[in-house]
Design a protein that fits this description.
By secondary structure, the chain is α+β, with helices and mostly antiparallel strands. It has helices at about 1-25, 115-120, and strands at about 30-40, 55-60, 60-70, 85-105, 105-110, 130-135, 135-145.
Length: about 140
């Protein structure tokens, strides 16, 4: 009798654990994508897989690019390693806590405020631009020299 009661309690406990685990929301890994291009007022060069940004427009909650891009799952990947995305207009939503960075030269990574970063981008000086998306929102933008 004790063995049967013990087995019944064990089975009920196990069933309760399984049911509670099944009802919990599953937090999957968010997909992170990186888009890379150059701020050089061109449409890019498909033959050499060299992407270019012809125009960039910043708004309070989104950024619009008229550009060819290289898409990758790795940060700071060379454009030749990414998937080529042909020239067209693309609009990305900005996350509320977006970060702006710069890499290259003597500083491995520096932080910019939004106004300075946008001013640098709008100068179309040939710097590389990496856009990091998580859950289809831009979480960071990095200028690369």
């Amino acid at each position: 009798m004790k063995k049967q009661l013990f087995r019944l309690c064990s089975a009920l406990l196990l069933a309760a654990l399984v049911i509670s685990q099944a009802n919990m929301p599953i937090e999957g890994k968010s997909k992170v994508l990186y888009y890379i291009s150059n701020l050089n007022k061109t449409k890019g060069n498909t033959e050499y897989r060299s992407p270019g940004i012809n125009k960039i427009v910043f708004e309070s909650d989104k950024v619009t690019l008229y550009a060819s891009l290289s898409k990758s799952t790795k940060p700071l990947a060379p454009s030749s390693e990414g998937q080529w995305c042909r020239y067209k207009k693309r609009t990305f939503k900005l996350a509320k806590n977006i970060k702006y960075y710069g890499v290259g030269g003597d500083n491995p990574r520096c932080t910019y405020d939004a106004d300075t970063f946008k001013e640098i981008c709008l100068s179309y000086n040939g710097l590389g631009l990496e856009i990091k998306l998580k859950n289809n929102k831009v979480v960071s933008m990095t200028l690369m020299s």
